[in-house]
Amino acid sequence: MTTLPLGFDVPDGWTPVDPERAGAAGAVFVAVRPAPDREFTPNITLGVRQRPDPASIADIAGEAVERLGRMMAGLDVLSRRAVGGPSAPGIAQVLRLRTGEGLELVQSQVHLTVPGAGPGDRLVLELACTAAPADARALTGDFQRFVGSVHVRHTGGEEQ
Fold it and tell me: Taking the mean position of all CA atoms in its chain, how far away is CA 118?
């Protein structure tokens, strides 16, 4: 896999944790927002996947829904919209999840394309914020700031 040096800002109040310890398979970054009086600890994850295939970003976002749906008792796509532009398209979607234990959650996902030098070098960033419905709306701004801060650092100090 291609090494991708990413830069981003962790929102105030969020604590980075080891993705492996957090049980976030495929994530390269995880942050949690401690909520001791809540049943679920809100989290932000960042994953990177190499996608040399011709799948559209909409198809890739659909694959993420299918993958997550296999682990949940219930999953509904509440919204989906295109973001980005022609050279780096993306998809933002909001999902309602129900765990096998009956816990209801909301997950906001953003799938962003990072074009490579050639078609086989395309990478896709998958950013997600998962929270209980009572917390999800209040955390939207934090997640938007996190997504907006993500950038690729190029060698030589240049940032994109």
Answer: 24
Amino acid occupying residue 9: D
**Do the Cβ atoms of 93 and 85 come closer than 8 Å?**
no
Task: Tell me how far apart the alpha carbons of residues 41 and 6 are, in angstroms, rounded to a whole number.
Answer: 25
**pTM (two decimals):** 0.90
Give per-residue pLDDT as tens, 99-139: 999 999 999 999 999 877 666 788 899 999 999 999 999 99
**How many angstroms separate the CA atoms of 129 and 112, rounded?**
15
Residue type, 64: A
Give dist(CA 91, CA 58) in Å, integer: 6
- CA-nearest of 131, 128, 148, 136 to 49 is 128
d(CA 91, CA 98): 22
21 torsion bin: left (phi>0), alpha (psi -120 to 50), beta (else): alpha
Number of H helices, E strands in the chain: 3, 9
The number of angstroms, rounded, from the C-alpha of 121 to the middle of its chain's C-alpha atoms is: 20
